[in-house]
Structure formats: C-alpha cells, structure tokens
Amino acid sequence: MRAFEFWDSDPQRLGWRATVLRPLGALYALATASRVSKPARVHCGVPVICIGNLNVGGTGKTPMTIALVERLIARGWSPHVVSRGYGGQLAGPVTVLPRQHSAAQVGDEPLLLAAFTPVHVARDRGRGAALAEQAGADIILLDDGFQNPAVHKDLSIVVVDAQKKFGNGLCLPAGPLREPVSAGLARADLVVVLGTDEDQERFRRMWGHALVRRGAGTSLAEPLPLLTGALCPLQTGMDWQGEKVMAFAGIGHPDKFFATLRAVGAEIVQQEALQDHQPLTPQLVTRLVKQAQTLGAQLVTTEKDAVRLPKRFQTQILTLPVRLNLTDWSAFDAALSLACEIKHD
Fold this sequence. Notes:
alpha/beta; Rossmann fold; nine-stranded mixed β-sheet; four-stranded parallel β-sheet; 34% helix; 20% strand
C-alpha cells in the first residue's frame, strides 16, 4: 500500500484526513485483533523467531533478518528463513534456489536472503515451517507474519524505524499501522529501533511510554527489552567520493537510500523513487540506463532492487549494500536463551 504524507503527522495534531478515516482504522484494528487471537495451528519442533513490524512499508526487517542469520550461524545454529514471498508468483512451499528462481517467482526479499541462508517461500507459513524443519533447520526465522497466527512463535521481534516511528499512531487507512501500538507491543518479546542517535532520541521522547508493559490488574511496570542500531554502508572497496550517479530505488523509503549515497560522498545528479517492490521491466530499466548515459552518470540501486533486475542489465548497475550494526546484542541473547528454555520445558 502506498504511504500517504498525513500518516506521518504528529499523533497530537491529526489532520482532517486522518480524523475522517479514523473509524475505518478502528475497524481494521478490530479485524487484526480477531485474527491474532486465534490459536496457532502449527507448533514446530525447533525454536521460531518472528521478525515483524507494526507499520506497513519498510522498517528494516530484511537487514535485521540478515544480522540475525549471521549472529546465529556464528554461534553454531543452522537457521532457515520462512517467508510468504511477497510479490512472488509461487505459492509454495518451495525452497529458494538463487541460480534458478527469479524475484518474480519468489519475491525480492527471499531471493536476497537466500544468499545468506536457506529460505523457504510459502503462502501457508505453517507448510513453509514444516519444509524448513525437514530441510534441517534447528531454528526458524519467520520473516514478517507478526500479525499471522498460523505458526507458534517462541520469540517475537518488532522492528521500528526511529525516523518514521509509529506515524500518527492510527491503523490503516487512517495511519500506517497494522494494529494499535499497545496491542502489538503487548505480544512482542523484543523491540529493535533503527536510526541515528538523533532519531532514536526523538523516538524515545514520543513513544518511550509505549515500551513499558504493565501487568494486568496491577501497577507493576516492566520495560520491554530493547535493541538499538543503525543501517551502515557495507565496505566493498568502492570509492563513492565524487562519483556522479543516477540513483533509483523501489523500497519502502527510497529517500533513505539516497541519503546514504550522499553520506558516502556520491554526487546524485538524478534520483528516481519507485514504488516498493515495483517490477523492474526491461522497458523501465532501459529508460533508466539511457537517462544515466545521457547524464554521464553511473546507475546505482539497492541490493533488494538489484535482485529484480533483468539479467542483461545486472553488470551495468552498481549497488550500495547496507548492513545493520546493533550496539549491544545482550538483550537478544538473553531473550533467545529464555525462549529455548521454555521451548524444552
């Protein structure tokens, strides 16, 4: 769904659009509450970590999933990712094969993640989890699905963009939320907030109260375990300083990609923001290539967009990969240890 500017307004100063749509947002929240209240029909024999969000659009789930994969592998786990395969044609369950599958078949995020660990795509996440176990997973990362009750989750992580925060605090279509903040965080075991120090501080000032859970019928308050971090350019040996580039991105928040390019010293002579997951047809990419040639600029895009490129263009377009740097993993390590203890009790 396309994001609207009024979704980013101050929760204390709702405009007329959000106010008019607020009753529909309340109905959406009720529908989500009804769905997530259903008991899980699939209980895996291995721990399941869900990486989700409350907002529609990009919050950093994919970089978080990559960081978790690398963390778990370094500690001896064999993680597999289960994804719905948003934007892909295959209903699954199917194991993603990077040399055989295209983004049009399995979705761009699963194809990107498959470079790091086995990934299984399934519209029915329960069947996807079963395939992951059969394939040898000793821990499953459920990519998205926080609002889907099909699979029992042993550890639920909510990823938040510190700059976007929770928007105006309302549910679709009045705001950017899939469910109310209080309801979503009540089911979360861990919150990961991504952004600059300044954005982190602004997020805490506005939403810090939401990160405290109170026991039912008591005055006891318990802060949610919190991780903070930021997305940083991956050092690939490419010197971007002064490089004339034409940048395009079809991700949740393209402006962040453009800002990252500028931060590494690239000179953006033209930028084009596409829709999130927009298909990169040969006609579209041909136009972009010709524009870049006319401008005397190097065409550059994101890793997620790159997997959607037609093969004949892949060598002509550079990517600027980013990786998630977390300040402290101890809250995750403790939460995972507790989840595993409960799992085996």
